[in-house]
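Worked problem 6 (solution included).
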Amino acid sequence: MAEWNLTQLRRAIKAAGVSLWTWNVDTDAFRMDQRGYELWDITTEGVLSFEDLSDKIHPADRDRVRAAFAATRAVVGPYEIDFRILSDLDVRWVSARGQGSDEDIIASLMTGIFLDVTGRKQAEEGHELLAGEMSHRVKNLLAIASGLTQMTSRSSSSIADMTSQLTERLTALGRAHDLVRPLPGGQGTAALLGDLITILLAPYDETAAYSGRVRVAVPRMGVGEAAATGLALVIHELATNSLKYGALSSAAGTLNVSGTVDENHVTLSWIEQGGPSVVPPTGPGGYGSKLLERTMAGHLGGSIAYDWTPAGALVSLKIDARRLAV
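Solution. The predicted structure is:
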């Protein structure tokens, strides 16, 4: 069996990006190598205890980590726990791993490694966020299809007419949905604000006796490719909610989208009227409301505000004018 000398082991540890630690469970003394102090953003001066280290652990994880480390006093075999630590610059994810033995327990010494797993955790969170968003969109599309079917039946004179209208609406919905997802390889060009909103809301406009229930009157200005994706997602989400609960769910309901622009911001007003009686939502809100807030703040550098009037929902979208052009 191959053997490695001390120099080779040190090189392997450095290449792996791990730091070594030892904890005396009787005295609470905690020792780390230089990489460990850098990872935890702690000075090497003075005596370090596990309690000192605990102060750097994220408050939401602190009790869990303390309990896990205390349990290693009697653990024989491998152990591992992931948690967050706080530094002056950011929040990092750390994985603490070790191998307990009878000798360690007798000597009251626990030994293991710390590994910075921030990148992996961020990727996992990104995947979970994407999965949640995709699930939310699929549910919304099913609700939209049902709502469009009911809407089309109100203005259709025959099965053939209904089939034709519904097909047109679903085709328009497909075109609008393409605007909600980013195009691969940076494809696509900027669009006019009014054209973008009109395309997104076209599937929800009635025909025949109910035509013109959706009105768009916004400043003539361009929307950049990056901003178009975020704005399309917001408009799509608001339209879905209106179709399920608001003005677009009623034959008499109307939707007006208007806008104003100043030096720094573009403000869009989403005004619903003639729909069911408005019941203000309670609680922290569902995935859709969180998606709207995250998109407005993150993608568009703005905010969203609601006014639940008896006549219909009033939504104000405040967007950073510089972000809108990107």
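Discussion: Residues 20 and 113 are 5 Å apart (CA to CA).
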